[in-house]
């Protein structure tokens, strides 16, 4: 059974699952967390979504993994302890914790409630806290201690299992749509890729009153996209004639694809002054043809998760519109199989670990 | 035959093939229609696009070509052919651009023309720049199927809507490049919100477009940093053009010292260049605006966009109303292009020098005094 390295001992014993090398195999792991400070909230974790970033991190695809690594940043649980300065939450509240657990609180981004763009943002796992440089461990564990600023109220109307992925996927999509103005009823939105992020884009797009077209390389996803998720139409990206027929028809495209791909077909689909919003993180640069950008005054912008205030706003929006992720609930010990399936995109559309019921400390 | 297509004789210089060599050419223009303005050309700027077009570097050039604009309509069809062969899709969707830096004096107006009278100084300008049915000033086709010929000629006829007035305060020769270079940088400064006093904008490339971007941005009250591969341009940029600072884009340390300091960047460079260092210069929510036209796709690292929520956008010339607004702004702030006036028969040498970027910063052909009709 793996234990945290010496020098990282804190008073409270925690149990979780961690990866210890770039094979990415997760296994039971004992570690420790800090005492609940004045501004802290302790959350007993009930559910944790499996984000594609978790897979990238455990395999060290981005070259920044710090093992042992306990992933998980789509956390829903119940408050078991609050610090004396905590006023927003009480014991027993259902809450969510997402991708960030701290930030500098003093830069322009932090002042604008955009902690996600703070250059010193601390991530829920594989990061180092600003105050004491201790390593952060994520939600594939039985509890977590978080500063109240980075905890959100989880609405009663949302199921905690299907709602867990909203803490990353949901806020990533919602924040990008608000910033780039992809919220005007009647406008036409293309969604590139139908996975964890993509299926949320369809649901939120429809909730905003947009016309939504799913763009995918897999023709067999059409029935799913249109009949079950509610997309208005479906475009097979590998069919040049169909793509050409759709040239210049979209006001926006949200690109969720993390495999390397050319932006050329997507720029063609946009109307003049159209925007492509990039949410995925391909590991190679994307090819960007200039003429169509310049000729049509098109824009390609990125967006990265969301700030705390807008994450709360997003959860309330989802509760109002009954938006949750489509999930497959798994037991903790099934996580390695789930990661393998995720690497083949074999999930509709997010795994969520039933942490509360299945994370059992062996010893 | 170009000479007899239309009733009014015209004379200019045309390229006959993709060598791009220009020589005297007799052709014809339409009679002044009721919405038309006919004018005698005084000056015509040489835009870098003219060089690309006469040498067919973008494909789609048809000869003989009297330059002045870029035709992308034919490019569109070329790209479709490429599509079926190689699965490589890209959009060269019309609108095409009409670039044209022509200044002249009105000699005749149609009966329904209200904006101009005979004797007005005017410029023939671009049609609405993002319209899919745009007709370009040269190397394009009118609705009657005849070829459009550009401003390296003695007279032009254009619909009143597409002609803008030049205030008396602007010298005509220095004003000519405003119609392409000027509007090409003015439009994105406005559209992308890079026009508020106190913002910091970077200008990549100090040529025809770049020097105009510096002048407009300073007039709008911005802090301006010129980013260039030529450290020798530093003094020029700061002391003569009024830029606030200068970065050597080949000096990594220099560039990194300015990371996260710019609200926007206007990138005028057409050569292939890396985008990542430029994206690094932007603050959060910053925008990199491309107005150059690299011939190959560039490489865009997604990570550089996501961190800091940054964007890359394009822009091409501007609409007519905006072009008039730009001319008025230039007049108010005394902005003209830095030019080298040349006679018509110097044009081939000018093109060679333009290719080497050996001009500060635009050649302007003195059509009125040097375009002599060949016997």
Automatic annotation (TrEMBL), chain A:
Superkingdom of this protein's organism: Eukaryota
Any keyword Cell wall biogenesis/degradation?
Answer: no
A UniProt-annotated Pfam family: ADH_N
Co-factor requirement: Zn(2+)
- BP terms from Gene Ontology: lignin biosynthetic process
Report keywords, A-Z: Metal-binding, Oxidoreductase, Zinc
SMART domains in the cross-refs: PKS_ER
Start and end residues of each Enoyl reductase (ER) domain = 24-353
GO MF terms on file? Answer: oxidoreductase activity, acting on the CH-OH group of donors, NAD or NADP as acceptor; zinc ion binding
Q: How does it assemble?
A: Homodimer.
Q: Which family does it belong to?
A: Belongs to the zinc-containing alcohol dehydrogenase family.
Name recorded for this polypeptide = Enoyl reductase (ER) domain-containing protein
Source organism: Trapa incisa
Organism phylogeny: Eukaryota, Viridiplantae, Streptophyta, Embryophyta, Tracheophyta
From TrEMBL, chain B:
GO biological process: what's one of them? Answer: lignin biosynthetic process
Any one GO MF term held by the record is: cinnamyl-alcohol dehydrogenase activity
- Per its UniProt entry, which superkingdom is the organism in? Eukaryota
Report if keyword Cell membrane is assigned: no
Q: Does the keyword Magnesium apply?
A: no
| EC number(s) from the headed UniProt entry | 1.1.1.195
Write the record's keywords in alphabetical order, separated by commas: Lignin biosynthesis, Metal-binding, NADP, Oxidoreductase, Zinc
List the CDD domains hit by this protein, alphabetically: CAD1 (cd05283)
Subunit and partners: Homodimer.
Q: What is this protein called?
A: cinnamyl-alcohol dehydrogenase
Q: Which organism is it from?
A: Trapa incisa
């Amino acid at each position: 059974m793996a234990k945290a390295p010496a020098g990282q001992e804190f008073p409270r014993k925690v149990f979780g699952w961690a990866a210890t090398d770039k094979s990415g195999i997760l296994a039971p792991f004992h570690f420790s967390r800090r005492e609940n400070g004045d501004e802290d909230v302790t959350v007993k974790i009930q559910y944790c979504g499996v984000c594609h970033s978790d897979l990238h991190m455990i395999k060290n695809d981005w070259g920044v993994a710090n093992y042992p690594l306990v992933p998980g940043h789509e956390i829903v649980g119940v408050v078991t302890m609050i610090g004396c300065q905590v006023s927003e939450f009480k014991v027993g509240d259902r809450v969510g914790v997402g991708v960030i657990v701290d930030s500098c609180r003093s830069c322009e981004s932090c002042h604008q409630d955009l902690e996600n763009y703070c250059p010193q943002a601390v991530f829920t796992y594989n990061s180092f806290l600003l105050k004491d440089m201790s390593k952060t461990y994520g939600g594939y564990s039985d509890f977590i201690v978080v500063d109240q600023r980075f905890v959100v109220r989880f609405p009663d109307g949302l199921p905690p299992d299907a709602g867990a992925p909203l803490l990353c996927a949901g806020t990533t999509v919602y924040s990008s749509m608000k910033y780039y103005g992809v919220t005007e009823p009647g406008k036409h939105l293309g969604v590139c890729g139908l996975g964890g992020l993509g299926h949320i884009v369809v649901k939120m797009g429809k909730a905003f009153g947009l016309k939504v077209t799913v763009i995918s390389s897999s023709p067999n996803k059409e029935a799913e996209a249109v009949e079950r998720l509610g997309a208005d139409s479906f475009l097979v990206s590998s069919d040049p004639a169909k793509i050409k027929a759709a040239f210049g028809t979209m006001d926006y495209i949200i690109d969720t694809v993390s495999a390397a791909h050319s932006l050329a077909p997507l720029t063609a689909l946009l109307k003049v002054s159209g925007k492509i919003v990039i949410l995925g993180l391909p590991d190679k640069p994307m090819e960007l043809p200039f003429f169509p950008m310049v000729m049509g005054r098109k824009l390609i912008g990125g967006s990265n998760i969301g700030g705390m205030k807008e994450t709360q706003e997003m959860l309330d929006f989802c509760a109002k519109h009954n938006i949750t992720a489509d999930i497959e609930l798994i037991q903790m010990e099934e996580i390695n199989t789930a990661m393998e399936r995720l690497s083949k995109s074999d999930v509709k559309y997010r795994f969520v670990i039933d942490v509360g019921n299945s994370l059992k400390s062996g010893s | 035959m170009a000479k007899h297509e239309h009733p009014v004789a015209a004379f200019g210089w045309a390229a006959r093939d993709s060598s791009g060599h220009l020589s005297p050419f007799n052709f014809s223009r339409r009679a002044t229609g009721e919405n038309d303005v006919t004018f005698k050309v005084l000056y015509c700027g040489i835009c870098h696009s003219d060089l690309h077009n006469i040498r067919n570097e973008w494909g789609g050039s048809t000869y003989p070509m009297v330059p002045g604009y870029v035709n992308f309509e034919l490019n569109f069809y070329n790209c479709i052919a490429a599509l079926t062969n190689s699965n490589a899709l890209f959009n060269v969707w019309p609108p095409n651009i009409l670039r044209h830096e022509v200044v002249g004096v009105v000699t005749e107006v149609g009966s329904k023309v209200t904006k101009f009278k005979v004797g007005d100084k005017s410029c023939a300008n671009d049609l609405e720049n993002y319209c899919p049915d745009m007709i370009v000033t040269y190397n394009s086709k009118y609705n009657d199927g005849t070829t459009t010929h550009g401003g390296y000629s003695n007279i032009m006829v254009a619909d009143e809507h597409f002609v803008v007035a030049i205030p008396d305060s602007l010298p005509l020769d220095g004003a000519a490049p405003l119609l392409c270079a000027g509007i090409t940088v003015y439009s994105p400064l406005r559209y992308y919100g890079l026009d508020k006093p106190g913002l910091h904008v970077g200008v990549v490339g100090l040529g025809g477009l770049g020097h105009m971007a510096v002048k407009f941005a300073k007039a709008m009250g911005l802090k301006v940093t010129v980013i260039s591969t030529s450290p020798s341009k530093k003094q020029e940029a700061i002391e003569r053009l009024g830029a606030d600072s200068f970065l050597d884009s080949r000096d990594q340390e220099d560039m990194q010292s300015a990371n996260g300091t710019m609200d926007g960047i206007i990138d005028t460079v057409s050569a292939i260049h890396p985008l990542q260092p430029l994206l690094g210069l932007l603050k959060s929510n910053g925008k990199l605006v491309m107005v150059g036209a690299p011939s190959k796709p560039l490489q865009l690292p997604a990570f550089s966009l996501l961190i800091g929520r940054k964007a890359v956008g394009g822009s091409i010339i501007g609409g007519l109303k905006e072009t008039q607004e730009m001319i008025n702004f230039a007049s108010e702030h005394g902005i003209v292009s830095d030019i080298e006036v040349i006679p018509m028969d110097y044009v081939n040498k000018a093109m060679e020098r333009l290719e080497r970027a050996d001009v500060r910063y635009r050649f302007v052909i003195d059509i009125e005094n040097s375009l002599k009709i060949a016997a």
